[in-house]
Design a protein that fits this description.
Blueprint (H helix, E strand, L loop, with lengths): L42 E7 L2 H11 L6 H6 L8 H7 L4 H9 L3 E6 L12 H18 L4 E3 L1 E2 L5 H13 L6 E3 L14 H10 L3 E3 L17 H5 L1 H15 L2 H4 L5 E3 L6 H14 L7 H8 E4 L15 H10 L4 E2 L9 H10 L4 H16 L10 H5 L5
Parallel strand pairs: 1-2, 2-3, 4-5, 5-6, 6-7, 7-8, 8-9
């Protein structure tokens, strides 16, 4: 497919921060009776990739004077040696090597933020289609190591639905990735209802991944670092999900499944207050906590929190399991922005029940994302290398 770049009026850049390499967290030994990675696979579910075409496009954009929060956050992407930037486009060498070393059987791949959310309606669907074909080719090369989420472009809802159907029915992908707001708009608007209807009809989840806050929120995030994972990401996604609830989207589409990362973007801690606030405001909706448990799953991406190094005190995961149920928690690393080995060490050693550990490591992912192919069966040495304390 030929892309005419003169048709593009918006764009962004990749996150070029150095990951610092893979390191093993110093954590206590696991008390597991079943060994993850040996008795069952580890499936990581928010693992980013980038296409060479989008990487080059974002380099061109970053050389200009574009000044949105996304541009400030992602920085200039001209460093050919950036480990994160290079690992995003590598689906055949370093990523697989690190998966083997860390004992990770499978990655659920998704196009990294900001994805196609920054592009003009006339070209965004073309880039989404190219990214999905690129992803499907990687899965065909490594069918036991990869599955994936299709990028879609809400800028053109009709074309987005067509790509959703193609991605599931022809490419056999496992759901959809949307990097939060598009043109500063959220999925609760009525013009985006065909996308939500299609996701429900296809029985595949939409993963709402963060990007820098929309212009509706941007004013409060103008200080250095605020717009990214420090605070902007959880604010952006939590606002998005709450808008879906307040607009009645989950009542109109009761089987719609939304997935959000980073241990639920703060929601597990806040469910009771959401119920209370909705009740006193007489919001004519089902209880938020009930809707959240029914329609939303969360992943552990970027949240390997041991509570100051104490494996018996993983407060964020403990809160998530108690608040939404282990059946709604799915393991993820957030590679290459986070090291695989640390995510594995956390989940292997955290003091939770073995039934919950197995559900979080692979059972919930298979169910929510309809992962039908069998993940790779790695050797015992590969599974235990570098991740067991």
């Amino acid at each position: 497919m030929t892309i005419n770049r003169n048709r593009i009026i918006h764009g962004g850049s990749l996150l070029a921060a150095d990951s610092g390499g893979e390191r093993t967290a110093g954590v206590p030994s696991s008390q597991a009776t079943r060994k993850p990675g040996i008795d069952y696979p580890r499936i990581a579910t928010e693992e980013a990739f980038q296409t060479p075409a989008l990487r080059e496009l974002y380099r061109e954009f970053s050389a200009g004077s574009w000044s949105t929060l996304d541009a400030k956050m992602f920085g200039v992407q001209n460093d050919e040696e950036s480990p994160v930037a290079n690992n995003l486009v590598d689906l055949d060498q370093q990523r697989l090597k690190l998966m083997d070393e860390s004992g990770v059987a499978m990655h659920l791949l998704s196009l990294t933020a900001p994805g196609v959310q920054l592009l003009r309606a006339g070209v965004a669907p073309e880039f989404a289609k190219l990214a999905n074909d690129y992803l499907a080719d990687a899965i065909r090369r490594h069918p036991t190591r990869y599955c994936g989420l299709a990028a879609i472009a809400p800028q053109d809802p009709q074309k987005a639905v067509q790509e959703m159907e193609r991605s599931i029915q022809k490419l056999k992908l496992n759901g959809f990735i949307i990097n939060s707001h598009t043109n500063d708009e959220y999925l609760d608007l009525k013009k985006y209802r065909p996308i939500l209807e299609a996701a429900e009809a296809l029985d595949r989840p939409i993963y709402i991944h963060p990007r820098a806050p929309s212009s509706q929120l941007a004013g409060a995030f103008d200080l250095a670092s605020m717009s990214g994972p420090l605070w902007g990401f959880n604010t952006e996604v939590s606002v998005h999900v709450m808008r879906l609830y307040c607009a009645g989207v989950f009542e109109q589409f009761p089987k719609l499944k939304i997935v959000i990362g980073h241990m639920g973007e703060g929601f597990p801690f806040y469910l009771w207050r959401c119920d209370w606030a909705a009740a006193i405001s007489k919001l004519p909706r089902d209880r938020f906590s009930e809707v959240f448990r029914r329609n939303v799953a969360i992943t552990t991406s970027g949240a390997a929190d041991f509570g100051n190094g104490n494996a018996s005190a993983a407060p964020a995961l403990e809160c998530a399991i108690k608040a939404v149920g282990a059946e709604n928690v799915i393991w993820a690393v957030d590679y290459p922005y986070q090291p695989m080995s640390a995510g594995v060490a956390f989940m292997d050693n955290v003091m939770i029940s073995e039934a919950d550990r197995e559900a979080i490591y692979h059972q919930n992912a298979r169910r929510v994302f309809h992962i039908e192919q069998e993940p790779a069966c790695l050797s015992k040495a590969a599974h235990e290398s570098g991740v067991r304390a």
